[in-house]
Sequence to fold (315 residues):
Amino acid sequence: MINADKPHLWKSDIAASIGQYNQWFMMFAPKTFRETRQITTEKVRTDLERTGYMSEIRPTTLATHPDILSTLRMMTAPPLARDRLIGLAGVPSNLIARLEAGKLPVKMSADELTYSMERICNVIVTLLDTDLFPWIGYKTSPTDLELYRSATVVADRMCGAVADPIIRNAQEIRQLMMISTYLNQKGYKKITLEARQSIREMSAGSYVFRHNLMVGREKRVNIPIDVIIQPQVLQEDGLPILIEAKSAGDFTNTNKRRKEEATKIRQIREEYGMTARMILFLCGYFDGGYLGYEAAEGLDWVWEHRIDDLRLAGI
Fold:
């Protein structure tokens, strides 16, 4: 065991991990958010143009550019969550998700689709935040300043609605880069593993990022793994070591999701045997309750602030 069997170290490690996450957040999160907001602002400006600057919110527009719906939801007062729009428009729940993914439903008739999109457009037009789009009341074309202001506000709303995923994604990328740097310094080589290849085929001293494992006895499903490492000295069972990069900015979310890792390792061991190993790579708010739960489920972890502990796993 690396850290799961050392509860006397947990308190100091939790404090160090929280400190490290907070330092990263203060230094890099604002920059990450601003960069995302800039990209989102450009999308909003494009979507404004696609809707004739809010004068053409109609089913034909939505059918041509279905992904504008995520922007339109943030142009109302108040901004609409997906479920709220579904309830107000009385449309199927999967329709909203499908449109926002930039696709039209394939099992809905043309008449039913047009009717549903009319209901969606009616809700948007009724709740449109006209303070954001003053040119509508003036019945004129928007000025550059008006476009900039409205696009920035809507982009802020969109980014605010997904702020946590934006930060979490940036943190995950940073964690994977840190692992990659560590492995490269140890002489490991990053490879590409085809979907049909078994992880047992990985050569010694190699690793792969973000690979799906097929598991399940009755129903086969793919489960994503952040990092798969085949040690330079192979384990007895020939299996590589699996790593899940985990970061968290608060305690609540980690304790809500702690069963996910336990479920994942059970699925992996059913497929590959009880010797299969998955290590959590932790940074942020992981308290004693979370650690105790994972340890009881047979999971171990390495703290990001002490990445050299990976050597205890044979890496």
